[in-house]
Amino acid sequence: MKTYLAKRTVNHNNQEYQAGEPLQLDDKTAAPLLTVGAVEEKPAEVVELVPIKTEDVVSNEDPGQELDADAQVDAAKEEIEPAKEKSSKKAK
To answer: Is 8 found in the same domain as 35?
Structure first.
């Protein structure tokens, strides 16, 4: 099931959806509605990234302990590398 947005009033499973309202449809059900322009795929959510100051960064392990930006990047890399190794082993 995917989320679609009604482009005009759509009646699906005895429920009426107005233009702009989201509805869940499987590919087979969505196909004819897409063809006639009654629905469109819901665009991906846009997330706004907010810059942070280095002095605002704190450790999750000890909320009182501050980390510098380099230490935070290093910590993130340590978490990512084992996951990459696991996925590459599975692909082989």
So the answer is: yes
| Same domain, residue pair 65 and 36 | no
Let me know if residue 77 belongs to a domain.
Answer: yes
Burial-class residue 12 by CB neighbours within 10 Å (0-12, 13-18, 19+). Answer: middle
Place of tokens 């280095």: 54
Which of 40-44, 48-52, 60-64 is predicted most confidently? 40-44
pLDDT, one tens digit per residue, over 13-48 is 899 999 999 999 999 999 999 999 999 998 877 777
**Residue-number span of the structural domain to which 8 is assigned:** 2-41
